[in-house]
Task: inverse folding
């Protein structure tokens, strides 16, 4: 039998892993896997477990939120021979699952994770050492994801982010930023900069299919939002985002393999919904087709 490691974050999704775990393990058994279960106790456990397990298992499946997936990918990026990675989403927003076409229903997702259809996934790297799967960002609302208490996420789900975000509307700060990307250089005041490899970020950014987002083309989508001059301008920005209009006066979308941000003072960043530290310079590099994700064959 092939060997599979099921890596579970027990704090994700109200501890929902307890429901249906037996059926999930049965699905893996039916697919020909002998399954070992490992639990994370705290932030930072998943990368260590994934790194150690990479050479011992034919398949790794992580069960948790986007942060758990990002940590698992980070662990796999520390080794050369990486087994296929499956994902059973149990988080609040599950942006990665939405982008990859993986069901938010754990049982259905486990069937997908036990399958043999894979697709390559680009992985981002911040300043040469921090990996991310779907977003690295600074500015407006980027701290919401990791500063929103887990209890609120479990109770209110996606609304928890909205509640926390609304409390910060009057505290928006702008930062002079130099943005160097493949096709040029920009200098302006921005309230948000997001380097993404996803069609959905925290339920706030959605990229249409016709935008041409690919998860394995070696390119990031880079969203920048200029500082509004009035409340009316801020309202127009929100309208543009809801309408998925990314070529307006304040909202722009670029594509680049690598992008460097330079600030006058250190700025807080988030990576896959987790605290990414404060930096005066951030270089985001795209590592093309670094991970093989197990996906639904119908997607």
Result:
């Amino acid at each position: 039998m092939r060997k599979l490691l099921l890596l579970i974050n027990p704090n994700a999704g109200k501890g929902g892993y307890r429901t249906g775990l037996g059926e999930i393990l049965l699905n893996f058994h039916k697919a020909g896997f002998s399954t070992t279960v490992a639990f994370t106790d705290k932030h930072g456990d998943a990368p260590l477990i994934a790194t150690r397990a990479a050479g011992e298992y034919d398949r790794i499946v992580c069960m948790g939120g986007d942060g758990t997936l990002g940590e698992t990918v980070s662990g796999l990026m520390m080794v050369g021979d990486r087994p296929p990675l499956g994902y059973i989403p149990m988080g609040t927003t599950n942006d990665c699952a939405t982008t990859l076409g993986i069901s938010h229903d754990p049982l259905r997702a486990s069937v997908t994770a036990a399958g043999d259809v894979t697709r390559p996934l680009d992985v981002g790297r911040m300043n040469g050492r921090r990996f991310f799967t779907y977003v690295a960002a600074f500015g407006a609302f980027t701290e919401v994801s990791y500063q929103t208490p887990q209890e609120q996420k479990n109770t209110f789900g996606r609304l928890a982010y909205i509640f926390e975000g609304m409390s910060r509307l009057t505290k928006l700060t702008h930062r002079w930023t130099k943005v160097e990307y493949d096709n040029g250089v920009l200098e302006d005041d921005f309230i948000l900069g997001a380097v993404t490899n996803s069609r959905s970020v925290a339920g706030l950014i959605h990229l249409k299919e016709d935008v041409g987002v690919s998860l394995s083309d070696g390119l990031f989508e880079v969203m920048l939002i200029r500082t509004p001059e009035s409340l009316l301008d801020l309202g127009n920005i929100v309208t543009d985002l809801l309408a998925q209009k990314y070529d307006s006066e304040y909202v722009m979308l670029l594509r680049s393999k690598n992008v460097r941000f330079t600030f006058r003072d250190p700025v807080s960043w988030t990576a896959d919904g987790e605290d990414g530290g404060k930096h005066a310079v951030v270089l985001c590099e795209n590592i093309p087709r670094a991970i093989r994700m197990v996906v639904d064959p119908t997607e």
